[in-house]
Design a protein that fits this description.
heterodimer, A: 446 residues, 3 helices, elongated, B: 527 residues, mainly beta, nine-stranded antiparallel β-sheet, 7 helices, 42% strand
Chain lengths: 446, 527
Amino acid sequence: MPYTLNLYDGTTTYDLTDGTYILGCEYVPNNGSDNDKSVSDTVVVHLSGTGAQMLAVKETIENWLAWAKSYYTTKVGDKIYLRAKLDAADDLGSSLIHSGFVEWSGRAPTTTIRAGYAMLRIVLTRDNWWEEALATLPLTNGHGTDVTSGLQVDNRNDSTRDNWVEIDGADIEGTLPAPILLDFENTYNSGDRMGRLRYSNNFRSNPNSLQTVLEGEDATGVTPIADTGSSGGNYISVSWSATQSEIVEWTIPSALLQNAKGNLCKVHWVGEGITVPGYWLRVKMQMSLTDIFYGAWKYVERDWHDMLDLGTMRFPPYLLSEYSSVYPLNLVIEQKQTSSTSRTMYLDALHIHPVDTYRSLVPKGYNTGYQASLVDDGIDGVVYTDGWSTAGKVGNYVGYGATPEIMPGVDNRLSFLMFSSTIGGYYTPERTGSVIIKYKPRRRAL
Amino acid sequence: MPDPFDDFSVLILAKNFEPVKEELPFKIGVSGYAWNSIGGPDWARLVAKEDVNVFALAQLTQFIGHPIEIYNNATGDKVWWGQLTSVKIPLGDNYSVGVSLDKLTNKVKVVYSYTTPGETQATIVKETAWASDTGSINEFGTKERIIPMSDASDTQAENRRDVVLSKGKDVNPLVEFAGISEPEIQASGWWQTLDWLYYSHDAGIEANADEDATQDLGSAAGNEKIAQSFQLSSSTPWNIFNCSLKMNYVGAPTDDVYVNIKSDSGGLPGSVVTTAVLTYVDFPDTADWVTFNFATNPLLSLGTTYWIEIDRIDPVSGTNYYQVAVDEGLNYTSGVLKLWNGSSWVDRGTDADLSFKLGGVEETSVQIERILTNLGQFFEGVETVDASGIYSSQFRDGGRSGLFEVMELINAGIDPDKKYLVDVQESRFVAVYEEPEQNEYKTWSVTDDGILLDDLQTPVDPKLCTVGRWVQLAGNSPIIDQLSLTADATFAFIESAEYNSNTGGWRPKMRDTRDPIDDMMSFVETW
């Protein structure tokens, strides 16, 4: 018999191992395959009492399962968990019940009920994993080490500012990737609230070694323009007039390619494009001067002031058997336009973020005010803001992208980009936030 | 393992394309979607979780007509965009309810054959004015419909128009007595919305087709030349291409006939703008339309008087001459007819107007751009990248949809032998461009197991549903070589493609090939 086995709705517990009319139970949890989202389990509960008393137990459990299905189909109401611990020393595991039914088990029920004893068989479908209690993860960057009460992140990534937080793999319990609850407080004291927030997690590409920023001033043959508000203290101006030409180029260090390990990375041009819109940009990678990879052409149709998404591509643009030695490549931004028009853009930095998970949180309205928090709860699958002067949560954001997850056993680094709430969503380099990350350790088996 | 729900995020946007999502209490997945090299995103089929509450699913119907975007969760990139067009929900085993944009109509007119009271059959074709519903247009965009009617009175036609508008302006629920096993949620690409509006363009024709008499040309001193003044009645200027006149010969003339377009000089023909000539063999012995094609095609301006001047080479002859149809009813109000008597231009004894048809042409790429600009109510902007070098009449009577008209022009291609491709980009900016070169040394390829490789041999994500590319068939060269003895199978062009979320597979349809699935379905339907 399991040490602990109960039904739980967040407040009330219904014990399946012991009770007024429950003698005990038999339960061996099943494991589904990695591809299964759900798994089916059977619990056999031994009862004693009068017929009416044992019937009341059956109906109580049936009612619990009915509520479980009600939440699972409507996402309204209380979640019903099966909680279990096989041994006193184990951590208590919870698994969300999707649905289930109850039936009499063993010999003909009427016979055994008259004898004052019966067995119930509970057949239920639940999540194909077990979760432990919600825990806060210690976070680290240049502003602090193992911080759990809120760690500052910046909107730039250079020698003095970090747009990321790192989680030590040793601090992530469990065996499976686990959804996180991101609590992102807007700590930028301005009437210009925070609008969109994009963040991604990197755990496959040596997160504590991967260089994720190519500064504009490090491009080949450019003249840096000093600016304390820019990443690295400089930005560059990029101009062209031909119908098609390469406009800016970097040498990608071998170390960056080796650490990235062929992972998919999103490339963002952070800066400003105040030139007349109506042109295309794409990323190319070259071996010496020879093109070996083309990204997709991205059409720029508006006058933008924040970040241009240049697409997602592998770094390096091929998979190798191992990455201890990778030839350095050139990363080139190429433009094309239908007529010879003179254009100028400003580049602060190129951000390269692995997208082991990638999320974009977009405001429906009102955005996130100073000292309010934007919460992306991947555990419950909801997005909201909280911490307003008038207390209460409000669902004024939506999120898209994969469920935000962390991988146990390896270091994870989450990187962030914040935007203002003005029309066009300007990128404001001075923005800051404070990050708290919580999770429920997840395992396949108890 | 492919998963229609985990692999994608589906965003439903507000009608003003603001990047927000109306939140639903269930998750929408993607069953599949398709792209076309003409128009970009073509269709998408969405799915709801199989155990979703039917009342929750019914909430989806309020988002009909809303923009939707599909994101690839693995990369964060948009892979499809369009609008939600249909939602059908099963109710029991035998019927379904839902809503669809297919039946929406918020701007209507009726074209009808008119029967004059007391007459036994229709005598003329008339049309009602357009009637529209502002609220529906503001909600969904304009969706036009022209209703044909036979033998109708004015009142009948207007009533029919008003009934159709009244019933069609709202997205009404559809009830079908045919069971479906799961909800059907469909979306269409923005290119399809060109079918919502009819396209008319008044430039390219200036005419007076009425006739009730003839005028001799070159039979006597009083009719050595004939001239008719005109002004363009269109809303935009256009390049003149030809002039058609209803003419015949009398006797046996053997000289050429010239038609000059001339500027106006003090109310009379001035200097030559352009010229056309026909020889005597081009004229019939009984009146019929003959067409003079001008040597050059200058742009005629609005609000400017021009002249059509008709002249024969030989001196006048009372035996051998030409005749031109004229309209003594004076139905053409934008000009006058003059005759040259050998020394001056004079009025005709019985005033008349020439019967004539002037035709214009315009480069098809310009016409494409105009249709997309004027009818692309959901497009952000249009740019035709490559000129076509092909010219055709730009006049349209408004009887066909913008989609029909633009497809005709697009399918005509680019001179001499290239096709157009059209991409409605994620920004809803439309790019119209020449198809890429089939380049043997740097082209995309498809392997035996269906993997698409770009021109740097990098595998292309099937979720991108790549279209509009030449591909080399990379595998099994001996078979390809053998096939090439009879037909070159080395290269193929991806005309359209579908992505299936359940299999994670990409299925292209090559240009000028038959789709085995379509063939099979056609066979089944035949039986």
